[in-house]
Amino acid sequence: MDHLLQLWTSSGTLGQILAIVMLAIGVKRGFIKIKTKWFTIGDPEKEKQVERPTGVLSHSGCPNFPSLQGLVKEAIKNSDKIKDLKYETYTDQMQVSRDFLNDVLDKFKTNYLTMYKPYNDGKIAGLLTCSDVKDYYCMLDKLKSPLLDMVEGFVRGNHFAEQTEEDYREYIGDKAKRLQKRTSAYFDEHYDTDNFKISREDLYEANMQLIPEINTIISGYFYKVRIMAIKTANEIKLLEESIKDFV
Predict the structure, then answer these.
(1) pLDDT at residue 109, as a whole number
(2) Structural contact between residues 64 and 50, judged by C-beta atoms closer than 8 angstroms
(3) Residues 156, 198: one domain?
(4) What is the pTM for the complete model shown?
(5) CA torsion, points 100, 202, 111, 216, in degrees to nearest 10?
(6) Are 175 and 220 in the same domain?
(7) H or E element, residue 41
């Protein structure tokens, strides 16, 4: 019973399901007995057949005990592997998310430099030292945090592996619109035309020209995290099936 308790408390949903299954098997086969004030479950005759010396673990003398013990250990090991897989996948997906946002924000930065060039006598040299450019870059760096929070929510939901191709396409379209809306709202709130030579209206029009290119980046990003999710789901399925086969 100690092994079943360990499996129940430390191995997540899969472990809890296996603990219940193994408890049922143990009761049915008679090497586990549950006794309460009102009823007894299990075969008391089979319980009597096993003689154990003092200090020996309960049911350790049962003929089925080694296989039950092995099943618990295997379940715990595989459940730990599943936890590690999920964590590693999430970590890798978040790194891909950071790279994705950097790519998008770099597009905005490059676009702004092109727009600001006429205000710098048409010269590229010295653009990065202009106060408007520095302030805009700082604004974009601050935008990364709320966008990363949004993307993390997408990753934590992580139903990519379960989606059909049609659902996946709709999903990408919806998330692209949400990212665009959040970005536009951020600029509306923080980009003060009085403090910049380029108006908010002109910036909006210029950024809208980037949408097709940014949507391509978004599609590539979601493709990567979906492939990661599918690979992990398949590995988890194999681990779960190995436990079922063992049972």
Answers:
(1) 96
(2) no
(3) yes
(4) 0.70
(5) 40
(6) yes
(7) strand 40-41
